[in-house]
Amino acid sequence: xxxxxxxxxxxxxxxxxxxxxxxxxxxxxxxxxxxxxxxxxxxxxxxxxxxxxxxxxxxxxxxxxxxxxxxxxxxxxxxxxxxxxxxxxxxxxxxxxxxxxxxxxxxxxxxxxxxxxxxxxxxxxxxxxxxxxxxxxxxxxxxxxxxxxxxxxxxxxxxxxxxxxxxxxxxxxxxxxxxxxxxxxxxxxxxxxxxxxxxxxxxxxxxxxxxxxxxxxxxxxxxxxxxxxxxxxxxxxxxxxxx
Length: 243
Hints:
Elements: H1 2-10, E1 18-19, H2 25-72, H3 74-91, E2 97-103, E3 109-116, H4 117-120, H5 130-144, E4 150-157, H6 164-183, E5 193-198, H7 217-220, E6 222-229, H8 231-241
Parallel strand pairs: 4-5
Antiparallel strand pairs: 1-2, 2-3, 3-6, 4-6
């Protein structure tokens, strides 16, 4: 299945996303349900399955997702989009966080929240700053703990300064620091956070300035948190759509 191959071969978390233009997730979800309910369900199911259980989990997730997506079509997509819009609105109240509506390779709505490493960490360190803890606590209280049917993937990135080995390690340590604080002090359920992975200075994820050549070092140092529809959310939307 093409969508499953894309997710399985690209990477183990959701990093191939596109912006949603001027449409919010509710409107986009409606379009997705109309055009590709089954395909969208398959993609997100495969993604969630892959986060949890590797390729075998991805296959199982794809079957679940396909059934959910195809069964309800436009209404299911709109319901998922509406939930993601609410989560995005709550996240936008956070200081020093960039919030974007995103979509997976099949177009299912989600949310990306980007935290600049300068806000979270001292240069070269992986211990959270005091103000970072305040921001993450608000993020947990207002977004994650009030939307427990949203799955979370945490991704750490570094700039090209320093050695590959050091940057890979610190990006992993920083992703883990965010996960551990959310699931520890902030009491986000561990099962909700599906992954925390550091990608170091992988050139695919470096951010460049307008000239397309010079790296924006500060922007490249960041932690991204992806909010994705869980299997539970898909099933609930399907049930609601059948009423």
